[in-house]
Amino acid sequence: MVTPGNVNNMLMAGALFAAAGPFRQLVADRGYDTNRVRELIAARGAVAVIPSTATRRPQIPHDKACYRSRNLIERMWGRLKDWRRLATRYDKLARNFLSTAAIAAIIIYWIN
């Protein structure tokens, strides 16, 4: 799902979870540490693997070993952002942006 750059990720969380299909755990960064997101994940019968923000009291524990797997996704986004066209979002149309992302992912996979 592609949204404009000025849309908060929390607004799309419900739609993203519905599109994801069934899952047992959801690994996300501190930016998703909101009660609403945690409630949406719990409603799906899954476990939220989200570290608490520094201001949350009390801190909610998370599975640190599982959270380390998020590193793979962060490295993938880092590689995709090497493509300036993706990092700066030159494309105005969502279909063009997604096409560029797909081409970049194919080339990165092919090179490795």
What can you see in these coordinates?
It is a single chain. The protein has 112 residues and is mostly helical. The protein folds into 2 domains: 8-63, no CATH class; 69-112. It contains 6 helices and 2 strands. The chain has a two-stranded parallel ribbon with strand order 1-2. α1 runs parallel beside α2 (35-43). It is globular. It starts with 8 loop residues before the first helix and ends with a helix. The model has no long low-confidence stretch (mean pLDDT 87).
Summarize it.
The chain has six helices and two strands; from the N terminus they run H-E-H-E-H-H-H-H.
Give the SSE map.
Elements lengths: L8 H12 L4 E3 L7 H9 L3 E3 L14 H4 L2 H11 L3 H5 L5 H18 L1
Parallel strand pairs: 1-2
Helix pairs in contact: 1-2
- Quick check: average pLDDT? 87
Helix tally?
A: 6
The secondary structure category is: mainly alpha
Helix fraction by DSSP (H/I, runs of at least 4):
40-55%
Overall form? globular
**Number of E strands:** 2
Rounded Rg: 16 Å
SSE sequence, one letter per element: HEHEHHHH
In terms of DSSP E residues, the strand content is 5-15%
Low-confidence stretches: none
Count structural domains.
Answer: 2
Largest sheet: 2 strands, parallel
Instruction: Report the span from N to C terminus.
Output: 26 Å
Strand order of the largest sheet: 1-2
Defining traits:
two-stranded parallel ribbon, 2 domains, 6 helices, 112 residues, 2 strands, mainly alpha
